[in-house]
Design goal:
74% of the residues lie in helices and 0% in strands. The chain is mainly α.
Length: 261
């Protein structure tokens, strides 16, 4: 039961009750119709993340690449687990980045809540700090060089963000309330056993599969982007968001390439 993350199925059940029982929509279609608002959240969050930091056309390109990616297109039809997870993780990054840039504590708190919902959709959210860490360090350094370092009162809120996320996850997952914290610790143990059941060596196939299944236009865009990033790094014109994009590209593949993964 610990592997049945509640948020996706719960939202799908609400959709089915509303559309099937309320309006007579086909049960299967009503069950998966919730993916439409999840996708709207995903694309809106991606736009809010990319548009102010990269510009209009890079943001449009990012939306088109995601929307037209074959595997993603297939998952959009029936995956009530990964699509909500992707939407909430993207929203967490967009909210958290804006909160740090503006030192807005309310937005930071909201980012923590959304992160907790993402953890209730799928534990991929556990890797979010690794994706955002390089951006955070670079952004804090940029703010310091600009003469407006992060306020001291903001640091405790930033460090408490994981606690907000865990509290939110627990709030929407009643199963973990039973015999707390025993059930919660059992869940964490199950994640560890699930994540380390592969071969005890580095694996190359995840990288090969990622490249082999990537559409040629996207592969070309990735190559152009990496070359551009290297040139900007040499010219010292790179931005913190470039590190986020690079980490977002590398870490998901690296995670399943680790020994035992």
């Amino acid at each position: 039961p610990y592997m049945i993350w509640p948020l996706g199925p719960l939202s799908s059940s609400v959709s089915k009750v509303f559309l099937h029982i309320g309006f007579g929509v086909d049960a299967y279609d009503a069950h998966h119709a919730i993916l439409v608002p999840w996708l709207l959240l995903l694309f809106s969050a991606l736009w809010c993340l990319a548009r102010p930091r990269l510009g209009r056309w890079p943001a449009v390109t990012a939306l088109l690449v995601v929307a037209c990616y074959p595997r993603f297109w297939a998952e959009c039809h029936n995956n009530i687990k990964d699509i909500p997870s992707a939407a909430l993780l993207t929203a967490t990054l967009a909210l958290g980045m804006t909160a740090v840039e503006r030192q807005a504590w309310r937005r930071l708190l909201l980012a923590g809540v959304v992160w907790g919902l993402a953890l209730a959709a799928k534990p991929n959210g556990l890797f979010l700090p690794f994706i955002g860490l390089a951006w955070l360090v670079a952004e804090l350094w940029r703010q310091r060089r600009a003469g407006r370092p992060l306020a001291r009162w903001f640091w405790p809120l930033l460090l408490a963000l994981p606690l907000v996320a865990v509290a939110t996850m627990l709030a929407v997952w009643p199963l973990l309330w039973v015999d707390f914290p025993t059930q919660f610790l059992v869940y964490l143990k199950s994640l560890m056993s699930r994540g380390y059941t592969g071969e005890a060596r580095w694996q190359l196939m995840p990288l090969i599969n990622a490249v082999a299944t990537m559409p040629l236009p996207v592969l070309l865009l990735v190559g152009v982007g990496l070359v551009s990033l290297v040139r900007q790094w040499r010219r010292r014109t790179w931005q913190p968001v470039h590190l986020l994009a690079l980490a977002w590209l590398v870490i998901p593949v690296a995670r399943v390439s680790l020994p035992g993964a």
